[in-house]
Design a protein that fits this description.
There is one protein chain. The chain is mostly helical and 195 residues long. It has one domain. 62% of the residues lie in helices and 6% in strands. It contains 7 helices and 2 strands, in the order ααααββααα. Strands 1-2 form a two-stranded antiparallel ribbon. α2 packs across α5. The longest helix is centred in the C-terminal third of the chain and has 35 residues. The radius of gyration is 20 Å and the shape is flat. The two termini are 25 Å apart.
Length: 195
């Protein structure tokens, strides 16, 4: 089954044709692209990338200073990597798709329909410029995973014990979700064979 498209074409209400970046040489082709109905909010994308880059640099700098004061682990072992990976997966899915987190996304996304997966919803980013870009971030588990990983990186540097607890809980929740879906699938297959 192909992966669902988490990014939709910009809506008719979006108008960024005055975006100054679109008229510069590297972005000219984006302004002329026929694949999207209107121009992409390039300036807002650049702003969000800049925030992420600065936060990442600040984390590296803080980790270096902290490492000079007290020894931080040089690398993550496979177990930590697996737990952090499951935690990032679960946090990004919960924030971007969960029914319970609709209030977090409400100002930036509009409801489309329930997802085929239990306890999840499909939404589309709304608005223009920064509002739309934040909506795209908050409704895309792939995009949000990068930010969740950065957040857990901060936690690992500044509050390792609390972060270990949080990642453990999120990883257990992810494994539990996989098991629930696998169990439901097995039950459906059993019922099909009995019918």
């Amino acid at each position: 089954m192909p992966a669902p498209n988490t990014h939709s074409a910009p809506s008719e209400e979006q108008d960024n044709s005055t975006d100054p970046l679109l008229t510069s040489a590297p972005f000219e082709k984006y302004a002329d692209a026929q694949e999207v109905e209107e121009a992409l909010p390039i300036t807002s994308y650049a702003g969000l990338m800049t925030v992420y880059f600065l936060a990442f640099c600040a984390l590296i700098s803080a980790a270096k200073k902290r490492d000079e004061q007290e020894q931080l682990p040089e690398k993550m072992d496979w177990c930590d990597l697996a737990v952090f990976g499951l935690a990032v997966f679960q946090i990004s899915r919960t924030v971007s798709k969960g029914w319970i987190t609709i209030p977090v996304r409400a100002a930036f996304a509009k409801y489309d329909e329930p997802s085929v997966l239990p306890s999840e919803v499909h939404e589309t980013p709304r608005g223009k410029g920064l509002q739309r870009v934040i909506g795209e971030l908050l409704t895309c588990p792939f995009c949000l995973g990068t930010w969740a990983g950065l957040g857990l990186g901060y936690g690992r540097v500044f509050a390792p014990s609390a972060t270990r607890l949080l990642t453990g809980i999120a990883a257990m929740s992810a494994v539990s979700n996989f098991l629930h879906i696998a169990y439901a699938f097995c039950c459906q297959q059993t019922h099909k064979k009995l019918d």
